[in-house]
Amino acid sequence: MIKVLVSIDKECDYKSIEFSGHALFANYGNDIVCAAVSILAINTLNSIEVFCRDKVEVIDDAQKGYLKLIFKSKLSDNANLLIKSLMLGLDGISHEYGKKFITIIRQEV
Predict the structure, then answer these.
(1) Tell me, what's the pLDDT at 72?
(2) What mean pLDDT is predicted for residues 50-60?
(3) Does domain 2-108 bear CATH number 3.30.70.1490?
(4) Cβ(13)–Cβ(27) below 8 Å
(5) Distance (Å, whole) CA 81 – CA 53
(6) Exposed/middle/buried for 39, CB within 10 Å: 0-12, 13-18, 19+?
(7) Radius of gyration of the chain (CA)
(8) Least CB-packed of 7, 12, 46, 75 within 10 Å?
(9) Domain boundaries, the chain
(10) pLDDT for 65-105, tens place per residue?
């Protein structure tokens, strides 16, 4: 199962998003749930880096299915919109395929 841990502060600002695990929906190379989550996560990160000036620390280990985005300051409006779009996509995957394959946890820090 993919676990997505979203950390938000008291002002509802995103602090970090952490992805861990594999969906195990299908065999390696055919797992559409893992592929969808990976594409959303990597495209969001790339978009923030290219289109926004926000500072993001990235910790990753592709073999273990681990990616963590740590936002070093309050996100710009554009980066915030990109993260909201990421969350919309992740929530859609969770709704479509269920908590057996992806769990999203939102926590206040």
Answers:
(1) 93
(2) 95
(3) yes
(4) no
(5) 14
(6) exposed
(7) 13
(8) 12
(9) 2-108
(10) 899 999 999 999 999 999 999 999 999 999 999 999 999 99
Which tokens in the block code for residue 1?
């199962």
Number of neighbouring beta carbons within 10 Å of residue 90: 22
Percentage of residues in the chain having pLDDT higher than 90: 94
Distance CA 54, CA 71 (A): 8
What does each C-alpha distance from 5 to 51, 69, 99, 105 come to in angstroms? Answer: 24, 10, 14, 5
Residue 47 token pair: 């978009």
- DSSP string covering the chain, please? -EEEEEEE-TTS-EEEEEEES---SSSTT--HHHHHHHHHHHHHHHHHHHH----EEEEEEGGGTEEEEEESSPPPHHHHHHHHHHHHHHHHHHHHH-TTTEEEEEEE-
